[in-house]
Amino acid sequence: MTMWRLEFLRLWRTQRWLILLAVFVSFGILGPLTARYLPQLMESIGEDAVGSLPAMGPPDGITQYIGNAAQIGLLAVAFVGAAGLAFDANLEIAVFLRTRATVREILTPRLVLTSVAAVGAFIVGMVVAYVGTGILLDWLELWAVVVGTLLFSLYLVFAVCVMAFLSSVLKSVPAVAILSVASLIAVGLLSLVSTLAPWLPSALVGAIDSLVRGGEFDYWRSILVTVAAIVALITITLQRLAHREL
Question: What's the pTM?
Fold first, then answer.
């Protein structure tokens, strides 16, 4: 059995892919519903609350989805990803794998399939959010949604690579997951520095919100930095895992 088939079966039989799908699809449903019915919900609470609530439009259906995907969705990806990428966490499994394949052969399918599962679940959720927004509010420009989805997907791949790198530093699955989320939050906080914001991978998170609201495409810098970071993280991770003692 190849490492690719082994990793596919691990994701499939443990139903971890289903966890990701359920999380993102749930938010894909809730996003448009929140944008459409939040004013009515607030009205039932009190008129003063409604008066302070900004008017909701079609872009808010996508914005609500992205907000949840970038928080709880990313947390789900972190725990699912850490479970597969931190293969040294279990000594017996680590010895079994390392005596039958190289670190590159072990890590590559785990890295690729985790990224595919995360991006795939996110895209399915985005399709649900887009259709729901079109039905409940109004249809958005498809190109803006597609481009924004691709940019966020690139950020998810970067997030998975951060998890892979931290798995070469730590052996505990919960520690890798939690520190991965903390690291991504730290990168996002750097965007508070205006000169750094356009260069950071975190700029890709809010890209779709800007694009569906008519903003210009100005993400080449963050794309280049994110791609370079992905390559660097993978290279360093492979080197560290290859020389790590169990």
Answer: 0.93
